[in-house]
Amino acid sequence: MWGRTSIERFQQNIHYSLRSMRRNAGLTCTAVLVMALGIGANSAVFSVVNAVLLKPLGYQHPDRIVSLSSAWKQKGDQGPVSAPDFQDWHDQSDTFATLAYYTDFDVAVQPGPSAEYAHVARVGPEFFAVFGISPPAGRFFSAEEEKPGSSGAAVISYSYWQSHFNGDARVLGETIRVYDKAVTIVGVTPAGFRFPQKTDIWVPTNTLVAETPSRGAHNYRVVGRLKDSVSLEQAQAQMDALGLRLEQQYPSTNKGKGIIVRRLQDEMVRSIRLTLYILLGAVSLVALIACGDVANLLLAKATARQREVAIRAAIGASRRHIIWQMLTESAVLAVIAGVVGLATGIWGAQLLVTFAPANLPRLAETGIDARVLAFTFGVSIISSVLFGLAPALHASRVDLNDMLKQGSTQTFGGRSAGRLRGVLVVAEIALSVILLVGAGLLIKSFLALHNVALGYRPENVLIVKTSMQSSDLDGARRATRLYKTLLTEVATLPGVSAVGATRTPPGQVGSNGTYWIDHPFDPTTVLANSPTAVFSVVAPGSFAALRIPLRRGRDFQDNDTFDAPFRAIINEALARKAFPGQDPIGHHIVCGLDSPNPMEIIGVVADVRQYGPAREPSPEIFMPFEQHPRAATALSFLVRTVANSAVIQQAIRKTGHELAPAMPMKFTTMEADLSENVAAPRFRTLLLGIFAAVAVCLAMVGVYGVLAYLVTQRSAEIGLRMALGAKQKDIVWLVTRQGLALVAAGLASGLAVAILATRVLSSMLFGVKPTDPGVYLAVLGLLGTVALLASYVPARRAARIDPLRALRQD
């Protein structure tokens, strides 16, 4: 009987809640929209967090798959691995069931009569075993195909199979040209598997292209699968010991170099994890502010229902029943808001995917699944408790003697309800301050990043990315000769003012490593303590195309060929470091790019920010592309234009196709490339700015609501004041002062918390400190101004009250 009675009472509460919501349609719609905004924003951000950070990788036992990296203890850096180091890790460790290395590039591939770009990964034995996958068609590489120097083979992705071969099983045994060699397709990976990044084709490493044998050449990434009985901590302990042994055995290359073992999923999201958690925290604050607004609405509704609550209590309803009734109304409201919020969240998630950085891992997996649905339901229920509990508790505190008196006009809840509404508004403002300060810091940081001196002029520069297939020195030299001809042809096109070419445009680094000054290459030299620089391969005219000033010496010329004496140009950062107070022209420099030949320094150019706007210029060595052909088989042409770039693109494409039909081309601009370089800071700045703006609007709605309600409840008092001689400006100030008092309390508490909370943004800021006074003053000014406007509207309404009508109603 108890259970059936409880169910019936619950049904009655729901039916009454729906009737009550229909009677107050305006309030219901407002509350649903406000809560749907908070719930929808949370669902959208959580769907991205879920896809990128929380959802397990789609491999067999993904928690057992790890990434291994070299770690330079003194510098605190970590990165790729050399082939000899990997072989020692593989042979001397017993904590991994499988261990494999790989490297990947966008290269020219010829699946048919014409060449195109494809993402190709060169992978070692055991690579596919690490992920525990099986081919839906064909097989993976055989031991014979993986032998160094063999003809190799190719495995293609499922999506490449569908897009290029229509899923035809007869593709097995077909050949495609990769690295200027014909390789046989032997298998297809399962649908969805494209590791690393979005790989189209896998070939065995050290077959089509020989691996780099130097222990100081860090060109590979490493993945492995832990044995079932081994923990991550045990694997790290063993690799620490192995790293120490390699330091002692190879001090010239491994001194100070350790090994880091991480779960693969953690490594993939390492650079974006903090950003997503900050965005999730920010949108949660927006939801809390929305809860505060809805709680204020329900408090106002509870005040209007004072006699109803008193009658319920008089005929026997207990305080518990009254609380449950009002909480049921809140829950029904939250469920409706949750449904609307989920629809909003689906739309919002699509927007986030559109604006998110293109390199955000697993972004394509963003969607609504069971975890997102559970999160949305949980947010809805928690929200219903947050915005419904306080009104329910206040509504249950009734004084029957006062409430049931005929003609009584005492306000239900009295001062305690007013204080609670004020506390809610103060909390909303405080949360808004935290969001505004965070957004202000990121905006100021982004502006500083956008306005920083890059060292080159990106406007009106067209980038033409190209790739020539080559697997040996002769093929690479043929490619550079063709590039030289193409550069000459492009330079004569109408509308082209300057042209050059580089392995990687500024903002990207293709290679870096150790260099020596006036000293022959010596493998026994202690590389760990040797200075390092960025290695750039460029064509003559590149500095002029980018407007990089030549400080001294000369630029490269057409006679700086493979058979001529090797030459180099350095930047000012390297000149300051290696030649303090000296002239570097005429000195010789050696680097570990591809040749031990000493290079005569013939010029010094101004610094550019090679790693993007956020990092200071590093020492850099520029080398002529014809003298380093192996590193120059994929060049980006830098074309400075003075005419319509679309017309020039067509002319370049036509010229390139005539000279090299097998060379694919991709067109972009230097400004678009630079925009991609700051995609991550732009993404978090945009979202946090939007969340802060929404938070301020919601908080000001709360200020307006409290003051408007206050004017309604104190209309008789205001009328009496005006009857006794108070002027309109006195009434305006009376109401405005109360609004500003709430804002001041919110600002004080919000700023105190913001000073502590914004420290988590330190690693994301450029040229700005978390305690930047300008940002805090701007927040004070903005919120003060908006609060004044929100307070002024109800204050003006109070000043227009007719004293006679107000007193007559009383």
How do the helices and strands line up, and which of them pair or pack?
Elements lengths: L1 H22 L1 H30 L10 E8 L4 E3 L3 H10 L3 E15 L5 E8 L3 H5 L5 E2 L15 E3 L1 H8 L9 E4 L2 E8 L12 E4 L16 E6 L5 H18 L1 H4 L2 E7 H5 L4 H32 L1 H9 L4 H37 L14 H26 L4 H4 L10 H38 L9 E6 L6 H19 L4 E7 L8 E7 L14 E7 L3 H5 L3 E4 L13 E5 H7 L9 E4 L7 E7 L14 E5 L11 E6 L3 H15 L5 E5 H8 L1 H35 L1 H9 L4 H30 L15 H27 L3 H7 L1
Parallel strand pairs: 4-9, 6-8, 15-20, 17-19
Antiparallel strand pairs: 1-2, 1-10, 1-11, 3-4, 3-7, 3-10, 5-8, 6-9, 7-8, 12-21, 12-22, 13-21, 14-15, 14-18, 16-19, 17-20, 18-19
Structural write-up:
- The structure is a single chain.
- The chain is α+β, with helices and mostly antiparallel strands and 810 residues long.
- It has 4 domains: 1-59 and 265-412, no CATH class; 75-255, no CATH class; 436-451 and 677-810, no CATH class; 470-661, no CATH class.
- 51% of the residues lie in helices and 16% in strands.
- The protein has 24 helices and 22 strands.
- The strands form 3 sheets. Strands 3-4-9-6-8-7 form a 6-stranded mixed barrel.
- A hairpin with a 2-residue loop joins strand 7 (175-178) and strand 8.
- Helix 14 (414-451) packs across helix 22 (728-757) and helix 15 crosses helix 18.
- The protein starts with a helix and ends with a helix.
